[in-house]
Design a protein that fits this description.
heterodimer; A: two-stranded antiparallel sheet; globular; B: mainly alpha
């Protein structure tokens, strides 16, 4: 029995959910709104499961068209859903993790809207979240590059809306442009990537006369043989799109700022699903990439360099979410390197496990933040009663790890799930991250990508280190702020999804165990170029050793002698300016601002104010054209032209207008007259030319 | 009777009936006048739907033709000749669709001299519809010039502080270009012996050199109207000073008369010249796209930002038309409609907030999404449509234009589309800037300022929602299911591009 006809419903359910909440949500309680949205996402998950089940019997791709889209000449695009093993893998991750995050968000947003005193925004959050699921499903479910692009930009919009969710404040809830700037930055950085996507699609269309996946892939070998440069160009322009969406060098700068969004958003969009769209795109385009090894090498290097670069920055962050954000960039680098090397199964495997443990880490971080806010609120409330002080006097940052410490006692559930997530991310046996990260490293060694291998191995070392640092700083030692001392554990609606994700982070590796290769065999039906990867014991041992050493060092620095309130980070004392570099993100943002953003603003202002207005509008038109003919008219009209005729007409016109609008300024006669003359001279001259030439 | 009952004639001149009724309504009955104008334009819209039902989309030729001899003296044969085909039907529908919407938007905005306003507005509608339907060059010229007069008064009487200056500049600029076109029309009439466009096409045979001169003469008129860079200097003045309804019609329809002129006359009458001139036009279009987008970003006035964005958007339209292939031209035609919808809607929205705040300076705005959530959400959708978000109308047009340009055998270079695609990034920059500065960030000073005058800033009322929702419907419709719109124009465009292949072959 097959359920392929359900394909469009992975989009329809979330759309129905958002429409219901948008239209009737005003009368719903928070519980109903949250339930409707979670149900919409949950039903999309059920559909995804049924689609995946249907594929077990018919593993070849199934296509389901629901309508005509753009048909012009040879351009034939339809709204067609594609159900194959690759797309359903993504659908399951998106709707599965998505549903858990919807449920979590009911609890999280309940508190968040109260901390920020705008209860109305609860509904808006779930409308946006459903919209995101719908757009993401279009992205992974589309059957052509252009339908993929609809989802691609759609999720970019949702990202914009949700980063800027608290658009009138900054992350500390002070009135500010900061959050909306972060939202704008994300969308513009993504648009730069989308430019690459568009150019790639133009090249593709005029080479293949189609944007439909099968038709493009079928012709790829033949065209690669006759014109490899073309395919290289297509794949590299697609890579530009990937660097935007999946936050790779050079366009990664938007993702850390995206942490301005509520934490469930960071987990769902900026860690587990949307940012992996670039990895999906490369895996989807496997047939193109495998024909051009040079492009594959570039992709792998971009991924590997991003992995190590972002990992170093994560070491120097104090904001609990910023550490995770740079970690996400780094892990996306692992995935991009994986699919870049042609290890499509390994890359997708890491995508899936990362979705589990990074969503877990973000949501747990959200739980920590809520706990801190509760502690702070409790405190402020208490103080307010005792001393009648202003509770908002002190600017308190609930995200700052320097304010935390000792939270394992006050928030035990959160501590344990966080620890599981951290171990999975650090790649400790037998957690999910160990298996998937190792498969990428093994592929790098096997495939002869030595540089990529070592870059990734060192990045893995940093990963274990910064996660160790975070665990010690947040959960061990003594509270460094009273809020941390009074932190409270989160309610069930928050912790239950965490436990589910923790379980997945433990056993997720089973998806593609060496020798069993469930995921590889599943994806093989769609991505023909998957090489079965070997388990290399030396690689596993080296990376485990590196991770353990890193954790040990982190213990030496942060665990053995816990940080005291107000104390300088021990690593800063040791590394000095290098740490400052890591802390300040190697000054990339400052560099981009000085090199590109400020320059663009300058050019735009100069073009608008000086070239367009002062020169072209004021000087050329007023002074040169009007001025010259004013002068000419004075000379000529006085001698030759019938003044009464022309002036009479325009004066009449002027009178009419003047009468029509009482109190209007009278026409300036010279001005009108000169223009009229200008017209007249033009006519005579050209007529003369035409008649006598 | 037979004359007036022809569908196209009836559609063109029906608003005159409204004018006639308006003349007899006493000046103090403002609402009666508003209703009269609204109903007249609504009936005109219904007639245009009736025309649509009779239109055979698979026929590439002119349909529902109304043809009479008009002036036949001294060997001249000027005809009253109306017809509709795939190149014009969508623009006609856009005109009849935007007119009632614009009238609705003036309900509370125009309190002075309502009668004159409505009369001019209905006259303008007659002129615009006529421009899109006329198939005789002389008749076309009459309609073309005729639209100037009502628009001149709409800006000059109901406009902002510098209205006279702006109105005059608009008038004279267009006139200057039109004179050249008139000469070219006269040349065709004299040397080819007919003013009828279909006859001129069949006759053909103008040598390439002369074609080029005639092409330039027509292009002068149309390029000013579009406006193409660098002839855009009248546009910011006209838009900033025009009343809201005037801006909507100016951006929505009047600018399209320029792009339509290129399509209907320059491309069909002078195909070889068009092939020759295409690279030049495309370069100007690409400059316009980038220049318009950069200049938009640096504006301090909301309406001026939207005005300059038109320079960028119409650059896309021109680029598509002169790709001279089906994707480019169909995309170009669709983008004319898209621009009319999105930019029209943006002007309406800006007008709605201006009516309450009396200022359009970005610096006093901020945080309005919280104060006026419905307004904010609708503004967001329209903005996204304008910046070409996939799933909304703008994307379909932009994508097909860029795709067509990229593979154009006439332009024969990927650089045009490559550079124009930068405009997609730049559009995000200025559109998001606009949305952020008005709706996001901390609450702007204008909220308090408005409160001081007794009323708090209010969200959209029912009339305003009714005004804007029809536009939203089409923004989604064209974005998700543009097929019916493409079907309407496809046969006529195919016929046109076939002529180009012939012309391009002839030139080899």
């Amino acid at each position: 029995m097959t359920f392929f006809y359900l394909a469009p419903w992975i989009v329809f359910f979330p759309v129905i959910g958002l429409l219901v909440n948008m239209i009737f949500g005003g009368r719903f309680s928070e519980k109903v709104i949250g339930t409707v949205a979670s149900l919409a996402s949950g039903l999309a998950f059920v559909c995804s499961v049924l689609l995946a089940y249907s594929l077990t019997g018919h593993p070849e791709a199934f296509r389901w068209t629901i309508g005509e889209w753009i048909h012009i000449g040879t351009l034939q695009l339809d709204w067609t859903f594609r159900v194959d093993t690759l797309s359903t893998t993504m659908m399951l991750v998106v709707s599965g993790v998505g549903t858990l995050i919807h449920i979590y968000a009911i609890g999280y947003m309940h508190e968040d809207v109260r901390f920020k005193s705008d209860l109305k925004r609860f509904r808006r959050f779930f409308v946006f979240l459903n919209l995101f699921i719908a757009a993401m499903m279009i992205l992974v479910g589309g059957d052509s590059y252009l339908m993929l692009f609809v989802g691609w930009e759609g999720v970019g919009l949702c990202s914009f809306l949700l980063i800027g969710f608290w658009y009138e404040m900054d992350t500390l809830a002070r009135p500010s442009w900061a959050n909306s700037n972060a939202a704008k930055k994300a969308m513009i950085a993504n648009r730069i990537g989308d430019f690459g996507f568009l150019i790639a699609s133009f090249l593709m269309f005029w080479a293949f006369h189609s944007l439909q996946f099968d038709q493009v892939f079928q012709q790829a070998p033949a065209i690669a043989a006759s014109n490899p440069g073309l395919i290289t160009a297509i794949t590299l322009f697609l890579l530009l799109g990937v660097t935007g969406k999946s936050a790779q060098i050079p366009l990664f700068v938007w993702l850390p700022d995206a942490m301005a969004g509520p934490t469930p958003v960071s987990a769902l969009i900026h860690a587990a699903t949307m940012v992996t769209a670039g990895v999906y795109l490369i895996a989807r385009s496997a047939a193109l990439y495998v024909t051009v090894p040079a492009a594959q090498f570039i992709v792998a290097m971009v991924g590997a360099l991003t992995a190590i670069f972002a990992a170093t920055i994560a070491v120097g962050q104090y904001d609990i979410k910023k550490v995770l954000a740079y970690s996400t960039i780094s892990q996306l680098g692992f995935m991009v390197a994986g699919v870049g090397m042609g290890a499509f199964a390994a890359g997708m495997f890491h995508l899936v496990t990362h979705a589990f443990f990074k969503a877990l880490l973000f949501l747990s971080a959200g739980s920590v933040i809520l706990g801190m806010e509760r502690g702070h609120h409790h405190l402020a409330h208490h103080k307010g009663h005792d001393e009648h002080g202003d509770p908002h006097e002190e600017v308190f940052d609930p995200n700052d790890m320097r304010n935390m410490g000792g939270l394992r006692k006050t928030m035990p559930v959160t501590f344990w799930v966080y620890l599981i997530g951290a171990l999975a991310l650090a790649g400790i046996f037998p957690f999910a991250g160990f298996w998937s990260k190792d498969e990428i490293l093994a592929n790098a060694q096997q495939g002869g990508f030595t540089a990529v291998y070592w870059l990734l191995a060192i990045a893995a070392f940093f990963t274990a280190f910064y996660m160790g640092r975070q665990i010690w700083m947040v959960f061990f030692g003594e509270p460094r702020h009273e809020a941390a001392a009074h932190a409270e554990e989160s309610p069930k609606v928050v912790t239950v999804p965490l436990m589910v994700l923790a379980a997945l982070s433990v056993v997720g590796g089973a998806l593609n165990l060496p020798g069993v290769e469930t995921l590889t065999k599943w994806l093989e039906h769609t991505v023909e170029f998957i090489k079965p990867s070997e388990f290399i014991m030396s690689v596993a041992l080296i990376s485990t050793a590196l991770a353990l050493i890193a954790i040990f060092i982190s213990w030496l620095l942060y665990g053995r002698k816990p940080l005291k309130a107000g104390e300088v980070d021990p690593l800063k004392k040791m590394l000095g300016p290098i740490f400052t570099g890591m802390e300040r993100r190697w000054f990339v943002d400052e560099g981009y601002k000085a090199l590109f953003i400020d320059r663009y603003v300058d050019i735009a202002r100069f073009t608008a104010d000086v070239i367009d207005w002062k020169f072209w509008h004021d000087w050329f038109h007023e002074k040169v054209i009007a001025g010259t003919y004013n002068w000419l008219s004075n000379v000529m009209l006085n001698r030759y032209a019938d003044q009464r005729g022309i002036d009479g007409f325009f004066n009449g016109l002027g009178e009419w207008t003047k009468n029509a609008a009482a109190g209007l300024r009278r026409f300036q006669n010279g001005f009108v007259r000169s223009y009229a003359l200008f017209v007249l001279i033009g006519v005579v001259a050209i007529l003369g030319y035409l008649l006598f030439k | 009777m037979e004359f007036i009952l022809q569908p196209l004639t009836l559609m063109t001149f029906f608003p005159l009936l409204g004018v006639l009724v308006l003349l007899f309504i006493p000046s103090e009955k403002k609402n009666a006048m508003r209703w009269t104008a609204l109903i007249a334009s609504l009936i005109t819209f219904l007639i245009s739907i009736w025309v649509l039902t009779m239109f055979n989309a698979s026929n590439p030729d002119l349909q529902l033709v109304a043809k009479y001899n008009w002036i036949t003296v001294a060997g001249w044969n000027i005809q009253y000749y109306l017809g509709i085909d795939g190149l014009s039907i969508l623009l006609v529908l856009l005109t009849t669709f935007l007119s009632p919407i614009s009238i609705l938007s003036t309900w509370t905005a125009v309190e002075e001299r309502v009668k004159e306003f409505m009369i001019f507005f209905l006259l303008l509608e007659v002129g615009m519809t006529g421009v899109f339907l006329a198939q005789d060059l002389f008749l076309f010229y009459v309609f073309w010039e005729f639209t100037l007069v009502p628009m001149y008064f709409l800006i000059g009487i109901w406009g902002g502080p510098r209205r006279i200056y702006a109105a005059l500049k608009f008038f004279l600029y267009t006139m200057a270009g039109s004179i050249l076109m008139l000469l070219a029309i006269l040349w065709l009439g004299i040397y080819q012996g007919t003013f009828s466009v279909p006859d001129l096409i069949t006759k053909g045979g103008i040598d390439p050199h002369t074609q080029l001169w005639l092409f330039i003469a027509f292009a002068a008129a149309f390029a000013i109207k579009v406006p193409m860079w660098p002839l855009h200097s009248w546009l910011p003045d006209a838009h900033v000073e025009a009343p809201t309804a005037g801006s909507v019609i100016l951006a929505g329809v009047l600018l399209k008369m320029g792009t339509y002129g290129f399509l209907r006359f320059n491309l069909t009458l002078f195909p070889q010249a068009a092939v020759q001139a295409a690279p030049v036009i495309a370069v100007l279009a690409v400059i316009g796209i980038i220049y318009g987008a950069a200049v938009s970003y640096a504006q301090a006035d909301i309406k001026k930002l939207v005005a300059y964005s038109s320079v960028s958007h119409l650059g896309f339209v021109m680029l598509g038309l002169f790709a001279l292939n089906p994707q480019g031209i169909q995309g170009g035609i669709l983008q004319m409609i898209n621009h009319g919808l999105s930019t029209g809607a943006l002007f309406l929205l800006v007008g709605m907030v201006y009516e309450q705040t009396h200022t359009r300076e970005f610096k006093v705005y901020g945080g309005l999404w919280k104060v006026t959530p419905i307004f904010g959400t609708i503004f967001l959708i329209v903005s996204l449509s304008s910046m070409g978000l996939p799933g909304l109308n703008g994307f379909v047009g932009e994508f097909t234009i860029l795709l067509g340009t990229f593979g154009s055998t006439v332009l024969h270079s990927p650089w045009y589309a490559g550079l124009a695609a930068l405009g997609v990034i730049m559009a995000a920059v200025y559109i998001l800037y606009m949305f952020q500065k008005i709706f996001m960030g901390p609450e702007g000073s204008i909220v308090e300022e408005v409160k001081k005058h007794g009323h708090a800033l209010r969200d959209l009322n029912w009339r305003e929602i009714v005004t804007i929702v029809p536009l939203l419907i089409f923004i989604f419709w064209i974005g998700l299911y543009p097929a019916p719109f493409f079907h309407l124009m496809a046969p006529s465009v195919d016929k046109l591009t076939a002529a180009f292949q012939a012309a391009a072959l002839a030139m080899r």
